Write a sequence for this structure.
């Protein structure tokens, strides 16, 4: 495994915004220096089984009578993401309130702005939010009344999953750069796919994007890859992608819930039944695919469908990936609250 270099910066890291609070809102904001510092911190924590957190726990407890509080608002379904934020908060001795949309006043026509103001007025110190609407996290952060972590904004982005995935690459492949990475599945509407494309490309990795015809990357991602001069290839099946001998392959489920109405590329209604049938034919981890993927590590953000039928093969590292996400979430909180190695906002 490659040694993480000593990192120094003259200017504060982003993400963070310009107001009183630090936020984690988009994968674009996560610089490579920032990510390397987070990986270094996560490695320190797991090496000591979390004992390094004691100083952060004490500092956070000293901030506020009763302790800091985290509000986890999952307005799209979540198990793993909600739980990792809760567990990471518990490790830092913070209080956690989980909330779903059925239990919120949004069902009574409360505006999302008022919801955020309400949460902050009660004294919550960070809002972890997932919403179908892509602008909700940035709206919440713009109010600057509490710290905000984007836990998935519709189809657009999922920065905390991209953090977990680049860390998993480091753990499983031994590096964050110089890899060939397959990103397969719903590259059109998959927020994890979009986030991973951004994350792995900024580290200079070669990308192989496996998409069904018509579900290729959107124009904004294509433009970004071209501007970065990223080496990337587009193919129409996972099997074809494996011919590139990738170091890792990031699979994803078909985002069926996002294919409503008309296909903006054709003007015709989405044929979801055909897409789903073709998806699980051409994007599935079949024995034939695995026979070609000799040394490829397989990642998946979960929940999985027929595209990942089992997890028995040691090349499939979805459970270490889940654990890695918890460690990275701890570093998110340390950054947001300015403790541990992020006290002054710089890598040291």
């Amino acid at each position: 495994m490659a040694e993480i270099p000593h990192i120094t910066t003259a200017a504060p890291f982003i993400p963070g915004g310009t107001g009183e609070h630090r936020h984690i809102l988009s994968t674009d904001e996560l610089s490579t220096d920032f990510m390397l510092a987070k990986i270094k911190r996560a490695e320190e924590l797991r090496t000591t089984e979390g004992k390094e957190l004691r100083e952060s726990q004490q500092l956070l407890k000293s901030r506020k009578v009763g302790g800091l509080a985290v509000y986890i608002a999952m307005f799209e379904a979540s198990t793993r993401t909600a739980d990792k934020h809760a567990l990471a908060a518990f490790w830092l001795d913070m209080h956690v309130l989980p909330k779903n949309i059925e239990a919120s006043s949004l069902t009574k026509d409360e505006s999302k702005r008022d919801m955020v103001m309400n949460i902050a007025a009660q004294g919550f110190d960070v809002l972890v939010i997932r919403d179908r609407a892509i602008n909700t996290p940035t709206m919440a952060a713009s109010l600057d009344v509490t710290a905000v972590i984007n836990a998935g904004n519709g189809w657009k982005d999922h920065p905390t999953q991209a953090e977990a995935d680049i860390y998993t690459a480091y753990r499983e492949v031994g590096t964050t750069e110089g890899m060939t990475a397959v990103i397969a599945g719903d590259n059109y509407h998959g927020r994890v796919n979009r986030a991973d494309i951004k994350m792995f490309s900024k580290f200079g990795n070669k990308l192989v994007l496996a998409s069904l015809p018509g579900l290729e990357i959107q124009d904004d991602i294509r433009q970004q890859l071209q501007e970065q001069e990223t080496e990337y290839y587009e193919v129409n099946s996972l099997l074809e992608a494996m011919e590139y001998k990738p170091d890792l392959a990031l699979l994803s489920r078909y985002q069926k819930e996002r294919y409503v109405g008309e296909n903006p590329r054709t003007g015709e209604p989405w044929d979801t039944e055909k897409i789903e049938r073709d998806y699980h034919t051409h994007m599935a981890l079949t024995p034939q695919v695995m026979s070609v993927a000799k040394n490829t590590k397989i990642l998946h953000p979960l929940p999985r469908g027929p595209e990942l039928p089992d997890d028995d093969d040691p090349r499939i590292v979805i459970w270490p990936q889940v654990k890695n996400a918890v460690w990275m979430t701890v570093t998110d909180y340390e950054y947001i609250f300015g403790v541990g190695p992020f006290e002054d906002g710089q890598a040291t």
